[in-house]
Specification:
about 140 residues
Length: about 140
Amino acid sequence: MAQAVKIEYKGQTDIEKPGTWPRYKKGMCDSCMAGCCTLIVEVKASDLICLGLTDDWEVENCLKELVHRLKKQKIITRFDIKTQMFTLEQKKGSDCLFLDKNRRCRVYDKRPDVCRNHPLIVGPRKGHCPYMPKR
């Protein structure tokens, strides 16, 4: 059985100012309002394949049509041809489109690499997160 981690954070997190973010500690996510799920998310084609939104063939043979379809379905906002990165759409209030009403990830087991690696390997301030305690 997992032991609960008590998080004491007295500071004020500002999502726009990574300098205000606390150092990440294991277990923080359990008592957080998913602040990281309001950041802009860029994903690779492999992430979209893992999410079941496309397949290898479509990425390799119909990229332009794929981008058009995903924009029309409001899954992405843009595709950067140079970096080959797709920017995921956000819901009102800048929430990730995969965040449910309880602020939990609906695709957690299939989540993109950027989400898997945040905040330890990727993010505006590595090793820190935009922790927002649940009220």
